[in-house]
Amino acid sequence: MTATITLVCVLIVYDGWTNLKVRDVVVVILGPVIAIVISHVFASGLVQHIELERPLSRREWSSTAALESRFLLLAVPPLAIFLALSAAGASVSSGIRAVVWLESISLTFWAGLAAYRAGLRGRSLVLAVIAGLIVSIAVLTLQVILEPGQVT
């Protein structure tokens, strides 16, 4: 969820949508996800260092990096959506807008899935989905307020 929120916020606050080319958008999508993977590797390594009370071996760092690299998959859906829209002839700006909307809406799904996997059911599960929806609305409101790509 953190990666989705970060990615959408980066796309929202970027003030040069009209100047972007397809490859630029790919970099804008990949950048935050790669940064999140690096921060997860660092944080996980620090926790392990503290728990083991010794520096990690090269093998332990590699294992941690391999485990955390699964978060790179978070870039696949927005990239697939954007590239499919670009291939279909949509403008870069329209493609970005579609990614922002779909990623924001997906937060509701991820909140529900996370809550379900955490064992929440009934009213608690519904509240978790509503919380995801509220975050989605907040992200989309940010887009409306900032009017990306517009000269302010």
Fold topology:
Elements: H1 2-13, H2 22-52, H3 58-68, H4 76-87, H5 92-117, H6 122-146
Structure description:
The protein is mainly α. The protein has one domain. 77% of the residues lie in helices and 0% in strands.
SSE order, one letter for each helix or strand: HHHHHH
Say how many strands there are. 0
The unreliable regions are: none
Q: Estimate the helix proportion, in percent.
A: over 70%
Count, helices: 6
Structural class: mainly alpha
Task: Report the radius of gyration as a whole number of Å.
Answer: 18 Å
Quaternary state reads single chain
What is the makeup of the main sheet? none
Number of domains: 1
What general form does the structure show? globular
How far apart are the first and last residues' alpha carbons, in Å? 30 Å
- Calculate the mean pLDDT score and round it: 86
Tell me the fraction of residues in β-strands, as a range.
under 5%
In summary, what is this structure?
The protein has 152 residues and is an all-alpha fold.
Give a quick set of tags describing it:
mainly alpha; 152 residues; 77% helix; 0% strand
